[in-house]
Amino acid sequence: EPEVTQTPSHQVTQMGQEVILRCVPISNHLYFYWYRQILGQKVEFLVSFYNNEISEKSEIFDDQFSVERPDGSNFTLKIRSTKLEDSAMYFCASRADTGNTEAFFGQGTRLTVV
Amino acid sequence: QKEVEQDPGPLSVPEGAIVSLNCTYSNSAFQYFMWYRQYSRKGPELLMYTYSSGNKEDGRFTAQVDKSSKYISLFIRDSQPSDSATYLCAVPSNDYKLSFGAGTTVTVRA
Question: Which pLDDT value is given to residue B94?
């Protein structure tokens, strides 16, 4: 069964460093998303991406964050100058097309900023 | 006002019991209502969704929407230990951006 894969499963980084979280969406999907879940809190929308551009972003997704689909298969989230409060699970999701409501989530990357 | 509100529980029930989970939402324009299940250290997976008001049944799971009161429910009949997970209600808005509830952690005791 096709699935969204995310790497790494766990990333530890020092405060101020840049991290890149990687996702391989399901191959025929067109819509891509990043969500995050701080420990003990709800899953929060960060950004949606379609047709090689951001279609919507939340207030969390400030200039510290960027997304890219560099090669037609990977979908990355870059966090520049990480802060302690960026520690969270980051989930990538993809969706097939306009008429399809189901977004498939990856297993997540646990980011720990120390 | 939060788009979706959900009692985080936790909820502990004996095997075979009916589990009842609820959420409220704020925007009357929402049309799709979803329930995701999340096992520990895993990503959310779609359990079922309903469109507009009414009931939808899938095996032991029933989802209900009452748009007049902006209330959505999930019932799990004959609950099993394997149903132990966190259940998240969610509503999609523009571009199917999902707004999640806080999630209710359910433990089914054998």
Answer: 72
